[in-house]
Amino acid sequence: MSKLLVIDDDIDMLDLVRATLEKDGHQVDTEVDATTIQPSKCQQYDLLLLDVMMPSENGFSLCSRIRSEVDCPILFLTAKAEDTALVQGFGLGADDYIKKPFSIAELRVRVNAHLRREVRQPTHTLSRSGVRFNMQEKMAIVGEDTIFFTKGEYAISEHLALHIGQVFTKEQLYEAVFGFDADGDSSAIVEHIKNIRAKLKAYNLNPIETVWGVGYKWRKDKIL
To answer: What PANTHER family does its record include (predicted)?
Structure first.
């Protein structure tokens, strides 16, 4: 059983999400006021669902405030599907977003896909182009430094590195990493890739290549 926290000022939405996810066997706690949420509270949960548009403190602000101390997946519930909003959310460390209005099936599939990915337990490491992947701890390391990837960023990097030289479309990457397909997936992958590149650029690394008109691949060589 996974433990989830849902934060939304809409009581009806909270009741719907709680009832839906409890049917899958999860323990679901809810809050209506983001300003009362502290990182220490969030650390006990396996996944957070944050509404973007809340009057007291919006989901973006809350994510920014807690992300450095919270290691679980963070998903946004949002009616804001514009690219600028998605860029902002992923830049703050979100792992995914669910656009309102959403179906019950989509909510269940997205949440459970992220939770399944959390419990995978590979037992080996992988080194590619200066990046070392600890696949047990789900950590990416360059030299002596651990790269602060979100769950989604790490999963995409690991998948590309495991299949070095193979080109994946945005849709294929999303399905491979999260286990399902839905509207908006391409935007999620694009923003995750941007963030991965920005974090590796600090170490003069650029292992992910864009294959124009197709998708992305991890370079076979060590071009910096």
So the answer is: REGULATOR OF RPOS, RESPONSE REGULATOR SAER
Residue 121 tokens read as 């337990």
More confident residue, 27 or 79: 27
Instruction: Name residue 175's amino acid.
Output: E
What is the structure's pLDDT at 181? 57
Dist. CA 90–CA 178, nearest whole Å: 16
CA distance 50 to 76: 5
- How would DSSP label each residue in 175-190? HHHHS---TTHHHHHH
Residues 184, 47, 105, 179, Cα dihedral to 10°: 60
What is the architecture, at CATH level 2, of domain 3-118? 3-Layer(aba) Sandwich (3.40)
Task: Report the distance separating Cα 31 and Cα 118, nearest Å.
Answer: 23
- What percent of the chain clears pLDDT 90, i.e. is strictly above it? 59
Would you kindly state where each structural domain of the chain is located, as residue ranges? 3-118, 125-218
Report the range out of 6-15, 128-137, 176-185 with the highest average pLDDT.
6-15
Token pair listed for 152: 């989604």
Sheet holding 27-31, edge to edge: 27-31, 3-7, 47-51, 74-78, 96-99
Reported as a single tens digit per residue, the pLDDT across 41-93 is: 999 999 999 999 999 899 999 999 998 888 889 999 988 666 677 778 888 88
